[in-house]
Amino acid sequence: MKKDKDKKDGFFAQFKVFIARGNVMDMAVGIVVGSAFTAVVKSFANDLILPFVAMFTGGIDFSNLKIVIRAATETDPGLFISYGNFIQAIVNFLILSLCVFTIVRSMNSMHDKVHAKEVAEKKAAEEAAAAQPAPVDEKLEVLKAIQKLLEEQKKN
Fold this sequence. Notes:
Layout: H1 2-20, H2 22-57, E1 67-70, E2 79-81, H3 83-131, H4 138-155
Antiparallel strand pairs: 1-2
Helix pairs in contact: 2-3
């Protein structure tokens, strides 16, 4: 009986450690932010991009395309291969991928511009520090002087 209790305590203790880890919390935050970002991307695609696509394609909707295997009757809904849904899903995927790429590219560009000034300042500071002569260590100078005196004594 005691061994069973130890196993349960060990399991729950391990579970508590797992839940308390930062990466689990990061994952949870990522899921929440990801779902909110999904709404933004869908709105961007549906409200801003798809109207232009529909304008050029004449509003083609592939989702109604299908192959009839068995025709529908009053009692039987029929049997269809709806390949149009697959084509529409691919088109939607490509449009959403383009939207995500555009948004991420814009964000990366903005990030680079914001941090370019910081990088330039840091590089300038490093170059200025490298251009300055190293500070003279008094102990080292004393040791060099002693070494020079010893060398002169050996010569004499």
